[in-house]
Specification:
By secondary structure, this protein is α/β, with parallel strands linked by helices. Helices cover 36% and strands 25% of the residues. The strands form two sheets. It has a six-stranded mixed beta sheet, sandwiched between helices. A four-stranded antiparallel beta sheet has the order 2-1-4-5. It starts with 5 loop residues before the first strand and ends with a helix. Bound molecules: adenosine-5'-triphosphate. InterPro entries: AAA+_ATPase, ABC_transp_ATP-bind, ABC_transporter-like_ATP-bd, ABC_transporter-like_CS, Oligopep_ABC_C, P-loop_NTPase.
Length: 261
């Protein structure tokens, strides 16, 4: 059997919530799933269901309360100092790139920074930076600009290009296309599908866009109050959802899409 790239077993994350921080919030409540190499798992669920918390736990940006996370068979929660080399093999792309981009660095320096940090930049800085722009459909003449002289969509493309520049094996995309227009979204869909096909990149894709989920993922998990209520092939879940919660979620999302167009 092919070993999954990501395996999550009974993952839990509690927060202290409430006005006086005296109430336990089970943001992730016993979640288990696997993602195979080169495949994308979509994560659907209403706001507050725990999707971002789950995505952050996978990269150890926050520490889970309980459970196990395996990256290529290694329990990353049991690692201490030796987790560092794994960091560059896993990347997260957030909805809001603004916080991730240093406003005092030019686009060129921002794009080349991860490669420099991981000692993967070999000469040819200008050509490499131009290629990193091209992969997210941005013109090279923006390389000298600072982030505040770019549109929100352009900044998001820079954040995406930075994340993939070091060829991570696993990417969590948390609402990564929410700030892009339809053309931008289609380009990122194509880019993710190319990474899956050419580099066997594995993805967890968190998105409210059913179109994005349909076109990029192989399987879908549906999250409700911290638990996975349904998981299965993308076409099965989107076309014939079995769980009443998924049925309600999909029909409300479809209605929203219809009223927007
Ligand atoms: N740092 C925190 N402290 C306390 N509670 C938190 C914290 N982060 C998240 N939560 C709570 O955990 C629950 C899950 O939040 P999370 O952001 O994971 O949901 P989500 O499904 O990603 O939502 P959205 O689609 O709006 O991004 C929510 O009830 C949220 O209020």
């Amino acid at each position: 059997m092919i070993e999954p790239v990501i395996e999550v077993i009974n993952l839990k994350k509690d927060f202290q919530g409430g006005l006086f921080r005296n109430k336990k919030v089970s943001a992730v409540d016993g979640v288990s799933f696997r993602i195979k190499r080169g495949e994308a798992l979509g994560l659907l669920g209403e706001s507050g269901s725990g999707k971002s918390t789950l995505g952050r736990c996978l990269l150890r940006l926050i520490d889970p309360t309980a459970g196990e996370i395996y990256f290529k068979g290694k329990n990353i929660l049991a690692m201490n100092g030796d987790f560092r080399p794994f960091r560059k093999r896993m990347q997260i792309i957030f909805q809001d790139a603004d916080g991730a981009l240093n406003p005092r660095m030019t686009v060129k320096d921002l794009l080349l920074e991860p490669l420099k940090v991981h000692r993967q930049l070999n000469g040819r800085a200008q050509e490499t930076a131009a290629a990193l722009m091209a992969q997210v459909n941005l013109p090279a003449d923006l390389l000298g600009r600072y982030p505040n002289a770019l549109s929100g969509g352009q900044r998001q493309r820079i954040a995406i290009s930075r994340a993939i520049s070091i060829k991570p094996e696993f990417i969590v995309a948390d609402e990564a296309i929410a700030s892009l227009d339809l053309i931008g979204q289609a380009q990122v869909m194509a880019l993710f599908n190319r990474l899956k096909a050419e580099q066997q990149t594995t993805f967890l894709i968190i998105s409210h866009s059913l179109r994005f989920i349909r076109q990029t993922t192989d399987a879908v998990a549906v999250m409700f109050t911290g638990k996975l209520v349904e998981i299965g092939k993308t076409t099965d879940i989107l076309n014939h959802p079995a769980h009443p919660y998924t049925q309600a979620l999909l029909s409300s999302t479809n209605t929203k899409l219809e009223t927007q167009s």
